[in-house]
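Researcher: Good morning. I'm working through a list of sequences from a screen, and I'd like to move beyond sequence-only analysis. For each chain I'm collecting a predicted structure so we can compare shapes side by side. This is the next one on the list. No need for commentary yet; just the structure.
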Amino acid sequence: MRHRPGEETGRGGEPPVNHAHFHIADLTLTVECPLPFKEIGLPGRLSPFMVPPPVPASNIVIHWEGVSHLSPLPADELIYDPKQVWRMFKGRDGCEALVDIDYTSRWNTRPPGARLEVNSTWERALLLERMAARNQQFSTILPLGPSELMIRTRIIFNDGLVFHACGLDDNGRGLLMVGRAGAGKSTQGLLWAREDGVVALSDDRVAVRLNTGGVTIYGTPWGGTANIARSHQVPLSAILLLEKARENELVPLSPAESVPLLAARAFLPYWNSELLARAFDVLDRLLAQIPVYCLRCCPEPAVIPLVRSVL
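Model: Good morning. Structure tokens for this chain:
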């Protein structure tokens, strides 16, 4: 995967001189960059997940390059638009897909701020980021959307998924609290964190992976309103689907009932039918091992012994 001459202008052809390694959900992410990392604001929020060399073979490699220009992509090549900060287009020259990312524009009036070129297995990517005249104020968006998108897609190939959830370690028993925005994930996380032996992994993005010993949940760098993002893991004991209520109630759900509810809170690859089928296979196998409950609750300590009664 490399530059297409004439489309972007920048530092093409220079070999990478700096490497940084990050361990997220038992995946090793390596970032290559021709500039000193401090010049582009790395590692940023990835810092707690940074590991020194030597590292195992990388699961994901992102090569970063600064460019002066990114050409707009044709609208008829758009293949997926989640209506957020990125859009996905057809790949070119051996790439599976091109992802345009911009936190300040919807691409209607100017080129995107960054472009991510990925291969078919989401193991390798080239991140081209549009830079103004070099100055010390520049800060790459790599720790935000690009690295998150790479992790949450690559993890599907490794029997995992990422959920919009709060993850807790309750004295060695993992809890995955899943819910829509406003359902109380952050509130529950802060409530539980007051208990002895409880560690909050994340209050917004939690990774889940199946392995030979069961299922493990992991904190990720992408915290939510409480900005909880710890490099921590724990075996998963239960999944809780949160609903606000006036009284606390814990209702068991069957796998068939759980699938659509959890799928709505997972980050799924809707742009690729084969990869989407793989993701649902992971979800089915997850639900064959881990009990799921609907937790209708109030923001009060009484919910804690209720949940612990089924662990």
